[in-house]
Amino acid sequence: MSEEPEDAVAAFLDAADKVYSEYDQGYMNADVALSQLETRIETLRESVEE
To answer: How many structural domains is the chain composed of?
Structure first.
């Protein structure tokens, strides 16, 4: 499934906001937050490079 770059960026920003929010609220530690952000960055990179 190929997304438009704008859609991929919007999805990334929404997911990143959720990670930051959950980290700020104490629901996840820094290692988990960074891991999730790394995964989302890789997904964004793949979507944009298609």
So the answer is: 1
| Greatest alpha-carbon span in the chain | 35
Domain that holds residue 16: 5-49
pLDDT the model gives residue 40: 94
Q: How far apart are CA 6 and CA 33, in angstroms?
A: 24
Handedness of CA 6, 11, 16, 17 (dihedral sign): positive
Query: What is the reported pTM?
Result: 0.80
Q: What is the DSSP string of 5-48?
A: HHHHHHHHHHHHHHHHHHHHTTSS-HHHHHHHHHHHHHHHHHHH
Q: Which two tokens stand for residue 6?
A: 């704008």
